[in-house]
Amino acid sequence: MSQEAWSSGGSRHEADDTSDKLYTPEDFAAYAARRETRDGGAGGREPMTYGDPLTDPLPGAVQPVQAPTAPTSPPPAYRPSTPPPAAPPPAYRPPVDPPVVAAAPPQPPAHALASPTTAPATDPEPDGDVRRFMSATDFLDRRDAEQEHGPATWGWRGTVRRWSGGLITPRMGPDELAYEVDRATIQRDFDGPRTIAFINPKGGAAKTTGVLAAGFTFGTVRGGGVVAWDNNETRGTLGIRGTRSTHRNTTRELLEDLERFTDVYQSRIGDLGAFVRSQGDAHFDVLASDERPDVTGTIRASDFDSVHKLLERFYRVILIDTGNNMRAENWLAAAGAADLLVVTSTVREDTGYSGLWMLDALQDAGYQDLKHKTVTVLSDPSANVDAKLAADLVDVYQQRTRGVYRVPYDPALVAGSVVPYAQLSANTRRQWLKACAGMAAAL
Questions:
Q1: Could you tell me where the Basic and acidic residues compositional bias lies (predicted)?
Q2: Is the overall model pTM greater than 0.70, yes or no?
Q3: Which of 156, 177, 245, 291 has the fewest other C-beta atoms within 10 Å?
């Protein structure tokens, strides 16, 4: 913009040309005096104030109508300039005041007459603040809690659904619903690796069979991350009852080559595959005990600790098959390191007595809270068992442990060879699912 155009529109300065002028203090004082005179004095311009954006009303919002306030003091008395006449004129009639009608209070808008919506009560946060909305985590937790199981697939309910082509979808019955609950319990997340030791100092108490059946159940339901470890101090049978492998390495070879796993950043679970035996579709691994006939040494407590720490790095559930000598170092180390003890027994008086004697010995040795740290699995050794003896064993073990689970007799396990997981009866799988759900709940 040119100097003429600027001057024609009203210059900010009275001087025609200020580009090269040097101002003196007197000039600045005169300019300040003119500004002060134009703005009405020093207090003429009020400083800019800023409101609170959270509490102040929005611009253009309708403000509530307030009733007029009564004056706090009477108005000053009126004094006329001329005195009033002594008496009214003859024809004067005083005016009659109209009746005083109280002014009606202002009515609120129509939309304001509706009753306000009461906000739902909210729980205070731990720090005292009130939560005003549902968080994303709360939303997902509520959706997960409200999720229902699908339509029935078992029994007559499943038959009706299939015959109707899905037009009729009955809900699950109690047995099928309990089955789904047990699976969900086994699939629960743990905050670290968990160790379960199967114990009974008597041979033939179904410890090895129980470890393999539990490994199959945990492995298939959880989808892996399970290892069954034969912690026999000399030679056990877990390796020959599990699925064979292309190698014959056992715990003894793993101890001899343990240095390759000392570096936690370089060792891998794939390297451990040279010592464990995969069980295929059962989705768990087996670490066998020593199988060489020329070895005379035994597994010590320090050996157990080294192998146990290694397995905890690569597996979430560790199932330990123990030997029959509860005075052995590795047996005591397994009982001490276990998060849960599983007393296995058949429905026989001698094996039942052996398990109870072991619990007495552990309690006398100072093991605390055995009842809440132990469950019992009773297996039927034949198709026909003594019902009175079975009831007595269930009763006494319920007093000593947190739960007792009965497992039926299964002909597929009689041969004593590799456990045919696919040939296990539906009832055997169902009862082992219940037992493993009880173990998972105890963890």
A1: 11-24
A2: no
A3: 156
